[in-house]
Amino acid sequence: MTKTTVLPVLLTASLLLVAGCFTPAQYVAMNPHNYAKSPTLDNRPTWRVAVLPPTSKLTNDPQTADGLQDHAGLVLMRNGRFTVVDRSAVDKLLEEQQFSYSGVVDPATAAQLGRMLGAEAVLTLNITQLKHDPFWSDHPGQRDAELHAKLISVETAEVLYSAVGSGSDFDSAEDALRGALETGLMGLSRQ
Predict the structure, then answer these.
(1) Is 69 within 8 Å of 87 (Cβ atoms)?
(2) In sequence order, what are the residues at sequence separation of 6 or more whose Cβ sits closer than 8 angstroms to the Cβ of residue 147?
(3) Do residue 19 and residue 82 come from a single domain?
């Protein structure tokens, strides 16, 4: 496909997904370039995952991503392949070890934290875009969001899954980020 045909196809697929006409597996099949999986991911039927707090160079406001860590756990647990370490245990360990949230995205550091939490993998989230589209000037709450998600093996620090997710919402940045998270983690759904 050419660039001029890809955008309409992706836009149509996204709209149909939001409308409930596509399953996540069908959407991912139509848009396979937003994620990559390691064959190692499928070697184990279930994974115990620690979801680390999202990082971002875009904002210093932790409220912007409030709830994203919990929502990631919910998305992971939906398909029955992942169990999730409780967020309070993750936050407590980060506080005890005096890790700054911005330093957690390194795979080796993430793997070290995961081992301390008894996890088999760690999910990191990096917010790469959060902006208002000027086209929607009559909707001041509108936001476009993009994030990068990585699932990292605690044992080897290998990246098991890497994806870019994008979302848009007319009410809040938080909802746009949740949409970006949902599309970013679609490739982890059982197919």
Answers:
(1) yes
(2) 54, 125, 126, 127, 128, 129, 164, 165, 177, 180, 181, 184
(3) no
pLDDT in tens, 124-167: 999 999 888 888 888 888 989 999 999 999 999 899 999 999 99
Distance CA 28, CA 31 (A): 5
Element (H, E) at 10: helix 3-18
Regions of the chain with pLDDT less than 70 = 1-33, 59-66, 98-105, 190-191
Tell me the CATH number at 154. Answer: 3.40.50.10610
Number of structural domains in the chain: 2
> What does the alpha-carbon distance between residue 145 and residue 78 come to, in Å, rounded to a whole number?
22
Q: Within a 10 A sphere around the Cβ of 53, how many other Cβ atoms?
A: 19
Domain of residue 43: give its range.
34-188
Same domain, 94 and 148: yes
pTM passes above 0.85? no
Name the one residue in this structure whose structure tokens are 């949230």.
101
Do 174 and 156 share a domain, yes or no?
A: yes
